Amino acid sequence: MSSRDSWLGRAIASVALALWAIFIGPPLAAQDRFRNRPPEDEIVYFVLPDRFENGDSTNDTGGLKGDRLKTGFDPAHKGFYHGGDLKGLTSRLDYLQALGITAIWLGPIFKNKPVQGPKDQESAGYHGYWITDFSAVDRHFGTNEEFKAFVDAAHLKGIKVYMDIITNHTADVIRYRECPNNDCVYRPRGQYPYSTAGAVGGKRINPGFLGDHIQTEANFKNLKRADFAYRPYVPAAEAKVKVPQWLNDPIWYHNRGNSSFRGESITHGDFAGLDDLMTENPRVVAGFIEIYAAWIDRFGVDGFRIDTAKHVNPEFWQAFVPAMLARARARGIPNFHIFGEVFTEELDVALLARATKVDKLPSVLDFAFRVAALQTVAGESGTEVFVRLFNADALYEDGSRTSRQLPTFISNHDVGRFSQFVKRAFPQASDEEVLKRVMLAHAMMFTMRGVPVIYSGDEQGFVSDGGDQDAREDMFASRVAIYNDNRLIGTRASTAAANFDRQHPLFQGFADLAKLRGAHSALRTGGQVVRHFGETPGLFAISRLNPGSNEEILIVFNTSKQPQEAIIEVDYDERGFSSLHGNCEAKVAAPGSYRVRVPGLEFVICKAVDAS
């Protein structure tokens, strides 16, 4: 195939441009001011465009004809397209700016397979993770030109745009002859080695991951067939559905059946049937460098969130990340932020940190932070949980420097909203208590080390019924019954009406915290020192310190329902504090000693008055 023969030249050109960017690059004077903000200066808003705002009803069906199984559009069903698009998102940038947002993490916008799944279990690609065309915006969301208009409009407001990207898989197109119901179990390399596909000239590929002699074109050119585990084929109707064209050949995929999410299947198995790319193959590496570099070149986006990052081999990221950073710098984007999804529901910092040390990802979503917040604010654990979390920051590549760039979150579109877990943990809690707990957890997210990420709808008091489809409510007026029957927090509204209320207590609370974060560099880039913690619900205190300005900001959280008081350590030179939020004592009790009083489920933010 010509696509197999021409990739090397394009890869060499990409490397040449990357080297130019690293050693020369454009002058800083050419950069827009907002481009120079480091990642830790941002406040991120994560949004699935289909569920935010419908700015153009003519694209609701994505230009397709027929019923929902053809178009994917059914605004009354939680698993189908609802009509949100790029025009709608662009029209609401003022709303996001008022919230204090400085960066938008945009769910995948690439052209998707409209509908897939077994009969009577079908759902649509409204979420964006079933890509067929990596070069084009899905027509349900708009056009490439409308994406460019969105990025330009966001940039005019000083708001960065992070694209959600996928390299692990494509849409479910490849079929296996042995499994007509598309339910093939994973077949491991030991039982089904690559050599069973037939060796070329008596040679076989080495499927391992270690060593340059394995991750080479010379190694993988010996793989000429794809039927080493199953006999894959592409249905005639979808033979050319993927773009770029080379993606239509099963030779570039693992073809070993569905992942069990254990052992080698983590990186070699199909993720719930999705076609799993052979990302250890240099051709695939070069292909995806070319694909995503084009989005940087054409649209000037500011970063990538990488979906399913832990399901891709480390060598892929070791090549991909430097190429993207170099291409961004060549485009005049010096602080291109890349963060990977390394999913865990445990306080497993080692798993997250490994991705920064071995995979060489610059940053990862801080799933461990979410777990700590759940255990303490949506649970009954003592605040020492946060000590265990922060003591492990040293495990990350570059230690605390990297930890300050970790996107922290408490809700998302996969696991559900924080409010849901609060209600589950405290079923007898009043509306006021639930609101306080949700606000407290967000205050932790805004003021502790890391980059805060607000999940669309949390600022309007949304309460999910579960994860995945049950946590993907519409911001515009919804027609989904299981969304509209939810009792939201902090408001009498429901999702049956549009929710862009700037007077909502959570919206105002988040906006106030965003202003504080923007006004005080210690809350963004300062070091963090734990001042107080306990083995039961109660006070947890930290100081954020900015060595450059000698600024100390003390933040004290109370995870108990009862008022709490303590005398805690502060810098010896501090003589008094002013209140940034809540009531702070004006003077220290003694040099290096400060009394704090915090109401139940509240927090205080105190700034040392003698700080410059």
How would you describe this protein?
With 612 residues, the chain is an alpha/beta fold. Among the domains are: 1-30 and 279-340, no CATH class; 170-278, no CATH class; 524-608, Sandwich (Immunoglobulin-like). Helices cover 28% and strands 15% of the residues. The chain has an 8-stranded parallel sheet with strand order 12-11-10-7-2-1-14-13. Helix 10 links the parallel strand 11 and strand 12 (363-364). Helix 14 (418-425) packs across helix 15 (431-447). It is globular and about 75 Å long. The relative contact order is 0.10.
Instruction: Determine the structural class based on helices, strands and strand pairing.
Output: alpha/beta
| Uncertain regions spanning at least 5 consecutive residues | 1-6, 15-31
> What gyration radius follows from the Cα positions, in whole Å?
25 Å
- Overall mean pLDDT stands at 92
Oligomer description: single chain
Helix fraction bin: 25-40%
Strand order of the largest sheet: 12-11-10-7-2-1-14-13
Beta-strand segment tally:
21
> Largest sheet, if any?
8 strands, parallel
- Please tally the helical runs, counting DSSP H or I stretches of 4 or more residues: 18
Distance between the termini: 65 Å
Query: How would the global form be characterised?
Result: globular
Query: What percentage of amino acids are in beta strands?
Result: 15-25%
Task: Supply the key terms.
disordered N terminus; 18 helices; 15% strand; alpha/beta
Task: List the SSEs and their pairings.
Elements lengths: L1 H22 L20 E4 L20 H4 L14 H6 L1 H7 L3 E4 L3 E3 L2 E2 L6 E2 L6 E7 L6 H13 L3 E6 L9 E2 L40 H4 L11 E2 L31 H4 L13 H18 L3 E4 L7 H17 L6 E4 L8 H9 L5 E2 L2 H10 L7 H8 L8 H4 L3 E2 L9 H8 L5 H17 L3 E5 L25 H4 L20 H15 L2 H4 L1 E6 L6 E8 L4 E8 L5 E6 L7 E5 L11 E6 L4 E6 L4
Helix pairs in contact: 1-8, 1-9, 8-9, 14-15, 15-17
